What does this fold into?
Amino acid sequence: MKKGTKIALIVIGAVAAGCALTLAFGGIPLVKKADQEFTLYQDFEIAPYPYADRGVPDDYVTLTYNEWTVSTPVELECQYAGEDDAEAKKQLFRAEYGDGKYAAVFFLLPDEDGEVDLTGASEGDNPIMVRLRDYIMNGYARQHGYDIKDMYTFCDYMYHMDREHPGISLRSGLAYYGFAECQDNAILFNKWDYHTDNADGWFDIMNNIGSPDSFCGCLKLYPKDDRSMRYSVILRASDEETLTYMLNSVKFDPGKAETEGDIT
It folds into this structure.
């Protein structure tokens, strides 16, 4: 074998070995960089809802509005007083009772989040890049048990992404960096995982927003048969125990979402 051929083979072998090492271990610096840049997950807690066993007091009053039913310590009044008020006040109910106590419920309109596309296929991107992103992002998520096609699954993965075992390959590093950046933008509050018979979601704990004596949170649910439709209700009370009872009382029926508000 000629000397030039031997040198060429050595160079090719070295390059191939370098590529193999990069593919196998190239994710390590990306993971390190992601853990340095995207740290908000350390400041927030995503945990199972801990107070379901508290039940609801028998004297609580039921309020029904479209797909939602919520029980409150006293009957709440709709804050819409007429044509001069903002339409959103039709969805706001509040009452004050004894010693500065109060409770309020704000029913948000359902929101169609749509499908989640991590590949760019829905935007007409280059087929090669679409396949590459699918291999990197979706493939990484599937390795962790998530088939991301809708907003609920995407959020569920963001909130529970395993930051302790990111992987070391270049593919893992690229995907981990991308998902860690998304997670850093997605987590704004401490959350409780919340589940009903027909939906799953989260309760964002927003205590003391706007008032030091306010206990507040936003319950967001995705029906099990439509993971791209988000239903939300904001609950507020003057004490944490009342807020817990109100949350425990929530009943959700997405089949009633298209009906007119029914107040009882």
In short: The radius of gyration is 25 Å. The first helix runs from residue 3 to 25.
